[in-house]
Each structure stands twice: as C-alpha cells, then as structure tokens.
Amino acid sequence: MHSIIYLQQLVSKTIAQKKYGHTPIELYEPIDYIMSLGGKRMRPCLLLMACDLFGGDIEKALSAAMGIEVFHNFTLMHDDIMDKAPLRRGKPTVHEKWDTNVAILSGDVMMVEANRLMMLVDDSILRPVLDVFNETATGVCEGQQIDMNFENRDVVAVDEYINMIRLKTAVLLGGLLKIGALIAGANDHEASLLYNFGEQLGIAFQLQDDILDVYGDPEKFGKQVGGDILSNKKTYLLIKALELAKGNDFEQLNHWLSIQNFDAAEKVKAVRDIYTKLGIREQAENEMNRYAQSALRNFESINLPEKRKSILKEFADQLLVREY
Fold first, then answer.
1. Coil, strand, or helix at residue 304?
2. What CATH number labels 126-324?
3. Which of these ranges, 103-117, 199-213, 219-233, 257-271, has the smallest mean pLDDT?
4. CATH topology of domain 1-120
5. Angstrom distance (rounded) from CA 287 to CA 148
C-alpha cells in the first residue's frame, strides 16, 4: 500500500510534466495555468487509493486519475465564470486573467481532454469506466444547475438540498473511487460499495463545510467564516432554520435575509444567534454524522483485510475531523 504523501507527490509530478497542447497558445495556456495553481489533489489521489486498495497497479490508474483532476479543474473554471469570481487559490481566475470567451473555450477543451485520459484505461474495462465517468460528470452539472435554481426560490426543502450536494459534490467522490476499483479488477458489488462509501462521505463533508462556515475558526477553516450567511446561501443550516423558526425568530431571520444594507459582523452574529437558539448546529452535526456512519458501514462491508483498508479509512477520518 502506498502512503497518501507518496500518491500526492506522484500526482503533482505528473501534473507538472503534463502539456495539453501548443497552438493556439491562447487556448492551451489557460489550461496549464489553472492546473498549476495547486491544491491538495485529493480527487486523483483517492482514485489511486481505490486502485491500491484492491491490489491494482496504480501506474495503470494514473491516466484516469489525471482525467478526474482535469475534469475537476474544468468545473472550477466554469464555476468561476458563473460566480464572477476574481480569485482562485489566491490567483486571478482564468476569465479575469484572459477573458470569459477564452475561459469557456479552454474549459471545453479540458472536458475533451478528461474524456481522452479516461479512454487510456485497459480496453476490457473501457465501457464501464466511461459509463461511470459520464454519469458522474452529468450529475455534477445537474447539481450546479439545481444550486443555481435555489437562488431564485424562497423555499427549499432539506431533502432537495441533500440531493443537490449529492450531485454537485458527492457523486464525483463516489465515481472516482469506483473507477479506481474497476481499474484494479474489483467486482461490481465491491466497486458499488466503494461508490456508496464515497457518495455518503461527500454529503457528510459538505454538511460539515456548511457548519464550519458558521462556527469555524477562520485560520483553521481557510475561508471567511460567515460567508454563507452574508450571501444568503441556502445551506442546510439556513433551510432548517427557516423550517423551524417561529414568531420573532422567523421575522428576524427574514429581516436579515431581505435587508440590502447591513454591517457584516452584525448580520453574521444575529443569524448565528438564531441558529444557536433553534439548535441548528446540533441538528446539522447529527445529519452529518448520519451520512458519515452510512459511509463507514459501506466501507466496512468491503471484503478485504483491515490492514489494506487502513489508509483510505484514515483519509476518510481526517476528512471529517476538521477543527472548529
């Protein structure tokens, strides 16, 4: 079994050596740029871990791992356009550094490249791997559209929100783990258990992200705490609060959602106080733990020695033990 650090180094080295094309330079330079911005490379490493879990050759999974990372960065490039985001990992976003049309077209090429990299797997598993990848990619796009739809709706149900984060975030985690398992020769049942593990873990991770945005330490969280509150983002916490709030709490919550001019710190504190009064944090943590336990049950059902499963299990534990 390979360590997480070794896999991260392997992925980073492969990305650094990869070129996506030469001319026209305006098409390919933005791809090199966004791929060089760094990050933890969690997704390709997880695919390699899944392959390693079942005793597969990680070299044979490396092209698919790269395909996942290219696809992920494609979604970031297009998300930044939709969000009008000026920065990505502290650097100018592609549409800011070049322009929107360049970012759209370079992103399109990245989607083509992701598929090409996926097609480098062994012919015997090509069809099932592409089926998983294409279904995953479609799900991510569906999740993004649903999230955008929520911006224009006053009422969103909890189950709708869970389905949105399942599609937007969690299916990619499940899909890449299943692809790694298939490359290693796992049977469909084992690969499906690993998919379910990843999907449920992804939902738990996003719910934890919602909690940390309100209650986290900004230095440890790595983001502005309260950002979701300031933007009226429909997270689990806000949806649940709107569902449970009555009387003055409901009026105050809607006041802060509708007001245009406000002091940021005052709004964050006022909404957080309503959440605390309604016990929203505890309910969100219970929901997060429910999905985390479901993920672990699927993982424990995989018929492999515990020693082989230890690295991926440790990674999952670290993912869900982020400090507040």
1. coil
2. 1.10.600.10
3. 219-233
4. Farnesyl Diphosphate Synthase (1.10.600)
5. 23
